Automatic annotation (TrEMBL):
This is DUF1003 domain-containing protein. The keyword ATP-binding does not apply. The keyword tRNA processing does not apply. InterPro entries: DUF1003. Residues 1-36, 175-201 are annotated as: Disordered. Keywords: Membrane, Transmembrane, Transmembrane helix. The chain crosses the membrane at residues 63-85, 91-112. Residues 1-13 have a biased composition (Basic and acidic residues). It holds the Pfam family DUF1003.
Amino acid sequence: MTPERESGTRERTPVGATAATRHRTPRLDQPRPPRRRYLPEWDPEAFGVMSEKIARFLGTGRFIVWMTVVIILWVLWNVTVPMALRFDQYPFIFLTLALSLQASYAAPLILLAQNRQDDRDRVNLEQDRKQNERSIADTEYLTREIAALRTGLGEVATRDWMRSELQDLLKELEDRQGRSDRVVFPAERSERSPGRDTDDR
């Protein structure tokens, strides 16, 4: 009985649900293996830079001049050369197809360049807004500091106020000195009339 039970328990542990889930769940301490991708990969930043270069070139006068020259040469070649050498006869279907293909590629490239420019403008606008907020906060701080300095300077003695106070003190001293010259103090009276004091005694 015991060996059969032991063999049964040995067979049940690897076949159990816990063992199956252990092998199925990925381990969290190890990175996943890279997936196989069937679509082509590209760098969006490099593609955006290339689209901006193409859009800038499409918006220049040089592109218009070169496109006009190519179209004129195309039409002249297919009108003047012998029939055997013409590759696009009078309705110019191939030229129309080439121009429509160029327009179909140019429009998304221009839109992509505009979207990238809008993103840059949004970032610049956000930075300008933050810079304006910082400058407004600095201006308010400086305004408060200047107001505090002005209130502090209102209580400080200025040069003109000190000069006027000193002039007032000087006038007061001169007045007192003039009064002292006019009034004879008792000490001076005793010095001036010593005989009267002796006579009184």
